[in-house]
Amino acid sequence: MKYEIQPSQKSTIKITITFDKAEWEEANQKAYLQTRNRFTVNGFRKGKAPKHVIELNYGKGVFYEEALNNLFSEHYYEIVEKEKENYTVVGQPELSVEDICDEGAVLVATAPVKPDVKLGDYKGINITKVEYNVKDEDVEAELKRLQERNSRMVAVEDRAAETGDTATIDFAGSVDGEKFEGGTAENYSLVLGSGSFIPGFEEQVVGMKIGEEKDVNVRFPDDYHAENLKGKEAVFAVKLHKLEKKELPEINDEFIKDAAGAESVEAYKTETRERLEKQAQQKGESETENNIVRAITEKAEVEIPDAMIESQIDMMVRNAEYRLGMQYGGMKLADYLRYMGSNLEDFRKGYRAQAEDTVKSQLVIDKIIRQENIHAEEAEIDAKLEEFAKSANKTLDEYKKDVTDSQREYISNDLVVNKLFEFLKANNNLTLAAAEPDKKAEE
Fold first, then answer.
1. Residues of 349-366 as b/e, b for ≥16 C-beta within 10 angstroms?
2. Are residues 101 and 180 in the same domain?
3. Judging by beta carbons within 10 Å of its beta carbon (0-12, 13-18, 19+), is residue 111 exposed, middle or buried?
4. Which domain CATH number covers 66?
5. Cα angle, residue 442 at apex, residues 252 and 279 outer, rounded to 5°
6. Whole-angstrom Cα distance, residue 110 to residue 112?
7. pLDDT of res. 441
8. Which of 167, 199, 169 is nearest to 184 (CA)?
């Protein structure tokens, strides 16, 4: 067997594998032995017909496909392993037959490979450094959330419904006198003022008394998700069964001890500030690093093979399906797409630009790591393992006995990435831009 590798279009290589007459005959004989039971020939028991007889009945090339598949499996991955210092294959190859005859066969595998990156400037760039400042009101907001989490609902019987109350209602909606799908419910729990219903509905329930019935007149928004209801005037027959309001506990040292385990309100505020400041620091550093990656990636040039982008999209789709299942009680992606009136092809297309950016960033980071010879020393890995050992109340030697090669590699990669960002921060111009915590996002 001989092979030749040539660079091809869009970060692919063309591997031409040539098999001589003896190799080709051996492959066909092997294919015959593997598949002879599939063929029926008059005068022979199944699986007992000689090779040349089967070829006479089914055609000379009857074993070619099996023979080529065997040769590919036996030699392709061996070639890829042998050439891994020169090329990193990142996807399955496209196969074609360049020549086939009694004298041998030539198989061509066109494989996507990890592309080289032409780096732009990655040192001396002006980059925005992000910092988040924790204020007193942020700490108070955390205290308020703790109070909300420990609230309880109490019945309201001596007044009409107010904004903030939880109302238990029956409702039946109709358009032009006809009820519509999804417009009817009994004993529905609605927080007034939450904006859960279409505009104007909750405001008209405010003021109702327990046992009261009322027609609520509303208009569906022009961009409403149901096509048959967009912009339509509707009437909901509403009956109010029950009212409840949220009762908040008093904030004092006793409450804090029970709810948060802190010694006092002031101790809780101190602990909360420290936690928020740590979170703010981590968030600021993460966004600063994202700004660095974005800046150096924009200046780089790379031709990314489709196989790498599709692989990244596969990962994103799997993550999306996992999140759907976690957030919506095991919902399947297929059910979600059907509900949204979409399909998997369009869903994947929505991830393509993000996938391209992600893959490009990974390639750029990897190129800089290699170009700057950033690596983790064995002593640094052991130092990190010693930290883990202390947490587990073990000696380093005891702890290392259970550490696998993959775990050690993970630690090494983590150290390398940390070193990379230390290098990039030290070699670029970071300009401070203070930012306030995104309270809505945090909630």
1. eebeeebeebbbbebbbe
2. no
3. buried
4. 3.30.70.1050
5. 80
6. 7
7. 44
8. 169
Residues 282 and 410 occupy one common structural domain: yes
Distance CA 410, CA 404 (A): 10
pLDDT value of position 182: 87
296 and 375 housed in the same domain = yes
d(CA 361, CA 351) in angstroms, rounded, equals 15
Question: Tokens 């007992």 — which residue?
Answer: 48
The answer to whether residues 304 and 379 belong to one domain is yes
| pLDDT at residue 225 is higher than 90 | no
Does residue 387 sit in helix, strand or coil?
helix
pLDDT tens string 141-170: 999 999 999 999 999 999 999 999 999 999
Confirm whether 60 is domain-assigned.
yes
What confidence tier does 440 reach under pLDDT thresholds 50, 70, 90? very low
Identity at 336, one-letter amino acid code: Y
The answer as to whether 241 is a domain residue is yes
pLDDT exceeding 70 applies to what percent of the chain? Answer: 98
32 and 83 housed in the same domain: yes
The pairing of beta strand 126-132 with beta strand 429-435: parallel
Residues 60 and 163 in one domain: no
Residue 96 maps to a domain: yes
My answer on whether 107 and 176 are in the same domain is no
Pairwise CA distance, residues 148 & 109, whole Å: 63
Question: Residues for the chain: how many in total?
Answer: 443
CA nearest to 18, candidates 93, 146, 107: 107
Q: Are residues 80 and 199 in the same domain?
A: no
**Which of 361, 150, 352 minimizes the C-alpha distance to 257?**
150
Distance CA 265, CA 255 (A): 9
Judged on CB neighbours under 10 Å (0-12, 13-18, 19+), 398 is: exposed
**Alpha-carbon gap, residue 439 to 32, rounded angstroms:** 70
pLDDT value of position 436: 56
How many domains, in total, are found in the chain?
3
- Domain span including residue 52: 2-114
Percent of the chain residues topping a pLDDT of 90: 88
Strands 301-302 and 152-156: unpaired
